[in-house]
Write a structure and sequence with these properties.
Length: 511
Amino acid sequence: MSATVIILFLAIVLLTLVITFFAAKHTKTTGDFYTAGGGLKGWQNGIAISGDYLSAASFLGIAGAIALNGFDGFFYSIGFLIAYLVVMFLVAEPLRNLGKYTLADMINSRFDAKKVRGAAALSTITISIFYMIAQLVGAGALIQLLFGIDYWIAVLIVGVMMTIYVLFGGMIATSWVQITKAVLLMAGMVVISFLVLWEYNFNLGTMFSEVKTATSHGAAYLEPGLKYTQPLSTISLMLALVLGTAGLPHILMRFFTVKDAKSARSSVVSATWIIGIFYILTLFLGFGAAAFVGDSKIIAANAGGNMAAPLLAEALGGEFLFAFISAVAFATILAVVAGLVLSGASAFAHDLYGEIFKKGKATEKQQMLAARYAALGVSVLSIVLALFTQYMNVAFLVSLAFCMAASANLPVILYTVYWKRFNTAGAVTAILSGLISALVLVSMSPSVFSPVEGAALFIGNPIFPLDNPALVSVPLGFLGGYIGTVISKESNPVRYAEVKVKANTGFREQA
């Protein structure tokens, strides 16, 4: 710990609190709290989306995964990037046209059933909590390394900060914290990548040649199969990453912060450019960490490899760059967890409390109060769970959240927009079959049980062979929706015709 680290950390915290202070003055209605009143421009929302998406998993986890596992670590970068094509072409526009505040609003535009809204809210809260655990693990490891304090205290500090953003500033504060963080993160990525290339005289061929001898893996470092030795396990991971983004609640929620579908499309385009450049640069971070830090030092700092990027910054740029990158990583985590808390709180306050318990008759004051209580509850639960997953790689933890999103949310979104026969029973079974199968299979996987002590949460032999169960759970989500629809005799082609027009045009009122 040094004065530079402390000053930069305090500067980041102060900046985000100032943003929250001014945002709180403009957060007066539920629309302001949930979606910033739909007042963000397309390019602003695009930067905010990238800020929301480029999480601790992307910055800390992927850099560590590439540094320790070479080509196999880069799978995460490829999957996260391609995922945005699914969002752009299949989900963004119809979601914006049909929804209001949450994913459940979009689905309920066709079915208007409490059980559908309840199932969607349950899925949103579960996925948000799992994603948040990954961010808190990254935050805990970072602050523990920098300040030498206990892991649980570090997690608690981040938990308090993220709760403040949501309680007082809502989506307005969250959006501008994400925009600020995205700019700082990209600046840090460019600087480190430039320094890595400088070491190799800007010769990519030299970098690839020398990195072969930089690790104990030798030439195998640049070949697939170093970590993912089972082809089915690799396919399952990629399926989760590619399809999961289109079902992530905190990402989908961002499309309600713009005024129309055109702005939603431009948001995705802007975000895709930023995200694409970012994930290309992760290669330089991973290779640089392997060459100039070393896998033994990376593992010594954090068993999951989550500190590779800050350690690389220290090796190449000294104390100041180390402090800056660490502070940016902290801002990254704060921004993402604020968005996650907001999505979970919105699902509870708007969908469960406002629409189901209060039957749509809750006052603005009641909804705002419920949302703030929900934010506290989601934060506390996530903090408690994060304390038990300290030594797991954050990129892997996020991939599990992606798996649940792809299994539970994506099937019901696509069926709602594109399948005429789809009905209420199908919507409920699609969500529950995908969500439950993902949770059950993960609990029996090598991620939870391993005969090697320290390799997983518990010692024992796994029942399910795949680390990430998306290869099984995603088809089960689609199959559950199909079977539930076919078995039920319910059908409403008129409602589907209305939804189809709204999804493609944004037209909401009868002529």
